[in-house]
Amino acid sequence: MKKKFIALNTSIMIGLGSLFSIPAVQAESVSNIKSERTEVQKEIAEAQKLIKELNAEQAKLTKQIEQVEKAIQENNAKITKTKEQIKETQADVDALKKSIAALEERIANREEVLKERALSFQESGGDVNYVEVLFGATDFSDFVGRVQAVATMAQADRDILAQQEADKAELEEKKAAVEKKLSNLKSMKVELEGMQVQIESQKKQSERAMAKLEAKEATTKQLQESLEKKDANLASQIASILEERRQEAKRKAAEEQTLQQAAREAQQSTQSSTSNNSSSASSANSKSDTSDKSKSTESTEPKAAAPKPSSANTGSAITAGYKYIGNSTYKFGGGRTASDIANGLFDCSAFVSWAYRQAGVSLPAHTDALAASGTKISASQMQPGDLVFFDTYKRNGHVGIYVGGGKFIGSQSSTGVAIANMSSGYWADTFKGYVVRVN
pTM score, two decimals? Predict the structure, then answer.
């Protein structure tokens, strides 16, 4: 009978052991899935953060594109007005050409008259003695007539020569005026066409950047959706395992109740002792798991990143234009009136001239004149405050102020006053190393 009690007791202990072993395996599976889900949720948070950053960049680019559109409108208006001026000037040129043609015709006619007089003079003996003409008169009336004829001929010759000289001088003056107007027209045409190409190039560059951001945002959103599906699947797995675990616990509880009842009937004291030991072990294991999870949580908690120090200002000529960053517009020929300056309407050279004027330095407001101001230095010796030039629609067609770190501040056609990177992209391609240090 005692052997039967021992065998029954052993069966009960094995049953209890199997009761606690299955939930332990399930707990480990849930822990693994939870750990995997935590990683997935971190990736989702990173994707959301990236989308937020992309949206911010898109908003910034959208604003830049709007500024470019506004700049294009301003410059198109300027181009339209200039074309009208060109048309009016061309009409003046055409009128001058007609006037020149008339002058040339009059000069040619006079030259023919003078040639005929010279030929007649030569055929008559080469030397006309006006005294002999007068003394050859047959009577007094003939004498008076001859005197008047000689005086008229002499005066006519002098008048022809004087008119000829005056017309020649007028001809040279009008030719010079035509050449100057034509030269100005050609220069203005090159300037306008160059600016148009540059503005369109900046617009296309912004649109390409926007397209890349939109494509990256779409890819990131797809990744986020995929991660969210994975997270939902893992959550479903956890819920399924926990539900299975609850059902298993109910079944094992029923089995335990049956086994414990049998054990009490077989050996009340042994069963009681075994039950107490199992409860103590379970409690210890539970505390140990709780402690380990707490330590794991503490060890994985992220530390806050140290704040980065901000850079110092690099001079009043540079910082003068900071107030216009984000609220200015490029305007061809702008920045030369109080109204334009108050409204942040600059072209590149006028902005540089204005910025240095705030620092007490007088500089011209044209790229060609700025390129000849100060001392030309090597690009390797650049310092904040130096003038940097870019070959855009012409050599040294754009100018800005170097601020250090491979960047410059200037009035760009796409952004208005802004700090731009000259180490890569469009500005790196157009920077040919021309640098001027203001004396």
Answer: 0.42
